[in-house]
Amino acid sequence: MKIYFAPMEGITDGILRQTHQKIFGGVDVYCLPFHKLTQTLSLLTREERDISPEENEGLNVLPQALTRDPEQLSAWMYYVSECGYSCADLNLGCPSPTVTKKGRGSGMLRDPGYLRAFFDRVFSSTLPVSLSVKTRIGYESAEEWPRLLSLLNDYPLAHVTIHARTTSEQYTGAVHPEAFSLALRIGTPHPVYNGDLKTVDDIRNLVSICPGTEAVMIGRGLLANPALARMINGGAAAGEEELRNWYMTLYEGWKDRFHETLALGRIKKLMEWPAGDDIRRKRLLRRAKDIGSCIDAVTGTD
Ligand SMILES: Cc1cc2nc3c(=O)[nH]c(=O)nc-3n(C[C@H](O)[C@H](O)[C@H](O)COP(=O)(O)O)c2cc1C
User: Whose CB among 139, 189, 213, 302 lies 3.0–4.6 Å from 110's, allowing a Cys bridge?
Assistant: First the structure.
């Protein structure tokens, strides 16, 4: 099973990616959070750093763009190529209203006519790197999916990551694995399943519902359990010392890069996932004033 670590803006930066690979591993591709492309094509300092070869040394990464402008996408793909990467991803999945109301992210799914014109333009010339997309299965309704999928199948995409929900469904509620089955059935090139994979059993269930699944993308499941990819590959669960090392290394990395207060805020945001629905742990985490108390809140046994 090929495993992609999902892009998560504000969380899965270079420090997290490098630390994860060193301590837990098991991930084949680390996806970079989106670069929001602009007319001038100037990237933010943090975006430039995030895609730089130094930041990603030794990692297999997939950069991602958020744009509805084909010329911007093509120009950015040249930049991706200059950075030394061979594939780039287009975000057709972001459900945030601030993004979709500008017709970007999953907002592009609302207008299949424009989406087709966009891809016609992008693929009208030779591209410097291959292009993949990360999509949802519709804007309002899953009934849009067969038409969207057939549109995507008309283009030479390197792979298609499918978050098995519509835009309206955001990130909660039941997923629609049957939408992924359809992609497998009609021969979409290299479909990657995404959505709510949190345990090894979730993967087994997915494979039993969708036989032939060859690749998955995992986000929140890896934040809650950073050893999940290793476990899917038959490896061990995370030990307590390993988890302490994970959180401490991340904190130290973020402290060196940002500032103590920001680093603590960032680690607390990450630790909300392993804390899950445990109200006591969440309360301890909220009150924690230093990294030691944060780690105790999330890994402590009493
Ligand atoms: C805080 C946060 C930031 C995200 N940032 C991105 C992003 O930059 N690009 C993207 O394609 N998806 C982004 N996503 C969506 C995730 O990549 C993933 O599709 C989503 O969490 C569902 O997968 P999961 O159920 O395995 O977590 C983000 C999700 C969250 C919660």
Answer: 139
Q: Give per-residue pLDDT as tens, 270-291.
A: 999 999 999 999 999 999 999 9
The residue whose CB lies within 8 Å of the most ligand 1 atoms, and thus the one to mutate among 16, 171, 180, 202, is 171
| Ligand 1 binding pocket includes 188 (Cβ within 6 Å) | no
Task: List, for residues 127-165, the tens digit of each pLDDT value.
Answer: 999 999 999 999 999 999 999 999 999 999 999 999 999
Question: 45 near 51, Cβ under 8 Å?
Answer: no
For a substitution probing ligand 1, which of 3, 4, 5, 8 has the most ligand atoms within 8 Å of its CB? 8
Distance 3 CA to ligand 1 centre (A): 15
The DSSP code sequence of the chain is -EEEEPP-TTTS-HHHHHHHHHHT---SEEEPPPEE--TT-PPPHHHHHHHSTTTTTT--EE-EEE-S-HHHHHHHHHHHHHTT-SEEEEEE----HHHHTTT-GGGGGG-HHHHHHHHHHHTTS--SSEEEEEEES-SS-GGGHHHHHHHHHTS--S-EEEESS-STTTT-S---HHHHHHHHHTT-SSEEEES---SHHHHHHHHHHSTT--EEEESHHHHH-TTHHHHHTT-PPPPHHHHHHHHHHHHHHHHHHS-HHHHHHHHHHHHHHHHTT-HHHHHHHHH--SHHHHHHHHH---
Q: Is the CB of 136 under 6 A from ligand 1?
A: no
